[in-house]
Amino acid sequence: MDYELRKAVENSPCGRFIRYNEKLVGGAYKDVYVGFDRVENIEVAWNQIDFEGAYDEEAREILLKLYTEAHILKHLKHESIIMCFSRLFDSEAKTISVITELFPSISLRKLRRTKSKCDGAVSGIDLAAIKNWGRQILEGLNFLHSQNPKIVHRDIKCDNIFVHSGGKQVKLGGFGLAIRLIEGNFAKELIKGNSAFMAPEYYDEKYNELVDNAFS
């Protein structure tokens, strides 16, 4: 969007954040706009859901994931994890907004598909880059597991790993299923995520709270 056409259409109650009319992503229930942080003097991503229309199961699930993600990320600060600045509830407009860093990126899943088509290879991604990204992901997971109580992501997959447009940095996102665990309180009922990324220990009932993240 032309910067001259960009308009401020919403302000956070504290006045720190501005939402512009420039939409990055549009969905049935969730929209992502460009915003601005007056304190840090940087652009941010303004994620917004209209909960007035959240009547069906899919909409409620998206709403719950957004709220959970904001609650978890609000207290985390690590270079390998998407940063969350604030969450806003507007009872009049009936919207919930989560303001995160604006990370110019593409999901690892989309990147693999793009590279495969361009290079004709199975993965199309350089091995050195894969090793570098893997190290960053493990550093992020180690940070999550070192929290007290520890945080388990429970949904690590290519869709939730974001590669910077420059290609050198990756960050973990998609914390909608994440939970904080008190040691020893991990239960089978807490198992969440995509079955394709679940560790074999789940099915053998020989797992602990860190199995899913390590295997994924």
TrEMBL record:
Coiled coil: none
Enzyme Commission numbers on file: 2.7.11.1
Record keywords: Kinase, Serine/threonine-protein kinase, Transferase
A cellular-component GO term for this protein: cytoplasm
GO biological process: intracellular signal transduction
SMART domains (UniProt xref): S_TKc
Superkingdom to which the source organism belongs: Eukaryota
Enzymatic class: transferase
Domain Protein kinase: 18-216
SUPFAM superfamilies xref list: Protein kinase-like (PK-like)
InterPro entries associated with the record: Kinase-like_dom_sf, Prot_kinase_dom, Ser/Thr_kinase_AS, WNK_Ser-Thr_kinase
Record field: catalytic activity: L-seryl-[protein] + ATP = O-phospho-L-seryl-[protein] + ADP + H(+); L-threonyl-[protein] + ATP = O-phospho-L-threonyl-[protein] + ADP + H(+)
Listed Pfam families: Pkinase
Descriptive protein name: non-specific serine/threonine protein kinase
Organism in which the protein naturally occurs: Nicotiana tabacum (Common tobacco)
Lineage: Eukaryota, Viridiplantae, Streptophyta, Embryophyta, Tracheophyta
